[in-house]
Amino acid sequence: MCGIVGYIGPREAYPILINGLKRLEYRGYDSAGVALISEKDAQLNIYKTRGKVDDLEHQCASKDISGTAGIAHTRWATHGEPNDVNAHPHCSQSESLALIHNGIIENYLVLKQLLVENGYQFKGSTDTEVLVQWIEYIKVTHKVDLLHAVQIALREVVGAFAIAILEKDRPDQIVAARRGSPLAVGVGEGEFFLASDASPFVEYTNRVVYIHDDEVAVISREKPLKIVNLNDVAQTPEIKEIEMSLSQLEKGGYPHFMLKEINEQPQTLVDCIRGRINVEANNVVLSGVIDNQEKFLNAGRIIIVACGTSWHAALIGEHLIEDLCRIPVEVEYASEFRYRNPVINPGDIVIAISQSGETADTLAAIKLAKSRGAFIYGISNVVGSSIARATDSGSYIHVGPEIGVASTKAFTGQVTVLSMLALTIAQLKGTIAPDDYTRLIGELAGVPDKMEKVLKTDPQIQELSKIFTYAHNFIYLGRGYNYPAALEGALKLKEISYIHAEGYPAAEMKHGPIALIDERMPVVVIATSDSVYEKTISNIQEVKARKGRVVAIVTEGDEAVTDIADYCIEVPRTDERFAPLVSAIPLQLLAYYIAVNKGTNVDQPRNLAKSVTVE
To answer: How far apart are CA 118 and CA 120, in angstroms?
Structure first.
């Protein structure tokens, strides 16, 4: 869960590396570092520090930062506390190699013991320092060059990694490799870029090569890109063109990426459904389903695996598929799925959801399900990601780069794709009446306009947030389709404001959490008009009877809840199946403004990283 950047070419590397780190800082921000081969004296200069990229820039202000080849890193700590010593890059004992690493080396203690017995010493407590020493040990003992040392060394490594290595005596090349963690090579005119994703080099080139598992890339000055596997078999690089634009990576006048991405949702949902929903023809065409319709028509069960926000989207998908398609669905935490010996049959479909397409637990769940004969369908935001390549078929959500660590537009994009998937399957199976099918297509297509209307409540929510900025606990309640929305609302608040918040099915509140209700407990209730509206009103009355303070998300024109709740935020009337798409926005804005009032780092909340590439 770190950001990797590299450059080799005719330009000065340092500005490119620093700008790249800033683009990747959402992936990790405990520490940062850079390694450069000096143009002045051919020395390998390594500068690193605890803190953010700005701290690294400050440290480098008086240093020799010359050089046209370099690697850089921003870290989210796994092994070893975030400090100057444990920051990347790590140097080999001879100080001839510098290495940066994303992932976890599971057998690092075994390797470390072997190295200690052979006279190697360690300055810090990271698995990465062990890896660079291990590669140097192989290089020396086998008397091979760096490429072959990396190939031999990685055959003995257990775990996940994306690495880049700079060698003092070879300023004309960078060696990189991956297994389980993302790594991309940007191909420019007479220059190469290296990064965890394409965002650091999008302004320089739109041509990218994604490195596959157990492949090693050698990017050299004035030479073609070379890719081989660990057995030294040459691989043919597949160059793809990326569609990301520089403007998508900038804040566009907003104070935070999160607020920008909340406000982008009407447009990102239009992008998500474009070419897939034809309102005039009254149909939904999700090609990943249509092309594999026999699999879906004959599926006895669908299992959805996901983590975090994607898991909440999966819960809504479960409602949609069972309701519209009459196929039993199970939703699993990907992190638990692989460890409980799940029952998976060859006729099962496993849907894997991940914004980044690199979530380690979800990738592991895919591999397990595949080994048991399941058909794997992926839902991701990142073209060419590991999950996109590992699945049999799938759909991109097409919401554009999401930089804020707390997911917003990816959540609504995932729910939208799941909605289209359910409608497509239902129409193929004949489990939905033609009139209902047509009506729901129109409803889903109309959601972006309703989102635009909800965004106009921003000033009201901004004022409301001031009342609850210093609350210590929140409870979020919802029923039916709105229960997962309540879970997501609670997650957003705890992620960025550090206020403890829990989401519950509203009816379950009286089976325990009601003991917490008093005049100091804010309770957010999603109480839009739906099939369980009257039941939700009863749950609100239970809270008010115990002096709880109720913030309610209600349908425009509501009178019953408005008479009971302390504060109400109105949203347009929406079919209950798509209500979470609309109610998500006020919940996101409430969390955002409370966090801003508390002065937290909204885009980079403590202890979190955007792309969770470790277990």
So the answer is: 6
Distances 566 to 166, 459, 463, 533, 586 between C-alpha atoms, Å: 61, 18, 14, 18, 16
Whether residue 439 sits in one domain with residue 507: no
Residue 203 has which token pair?
């302004």
* Positive/negative CA dihedral, 535, 540, 543, 544: negative
Helix, strand or coil for residue 35? Answer: strand
Residue 281 has a pLDDT of 65
For the cut 80, the answer to whether the pLDDT of residue 243 exceeds it is no
Of 410, 428, 445, which marks where a domain is finished?
Answer: 445
* Token output for 541: 């009355």
- Split into its structural domains, the chain has a count of 3
CB under 8 Å to 149, separation ≥6 — which residues? 135, 136, 138, 139, 142
Residues 6+ apart with CB under 8 A from 528: 482, 553, 554, 555, 571, 573, 574, 576, 579, 582, 583
> Could you tell me the sign of the dihedral formed by the alpha carbons of 283, 286, 291, 294, in that order?
negative
Annotated catalytic residues are: 2, 610
pLDDT tens digits along 445-478: 999 999 999 999 999 999 999 999 989 999 999 9
Taking the whole predicted model, whether its pTM rises above 0.85 is answered as no
Q: Are 362 and 417 members of one domain?
A: yes
Q: Are residues 120 and 210 in the same domain?
A: yes
Nearest to 90 by CA among 120, 29, 132: 132
The verdict on 232 and 358 lying in the same domain is: no
Angstrom CA distances, 145 to 134, 139, 230, 615, stand at 14, 6, 14, 32
Looking up tokens 């537009």 gives 409
Kindly report which listed range (48-62, 70-84, 350-364, 473-487) carries the lowest average pLDDT score: 70-84
Predicted pLDDT at 417: 97
599 assigned to some structural domain? yes
In the predicted model, what is the mean pLDDT of residues 339-344? 89
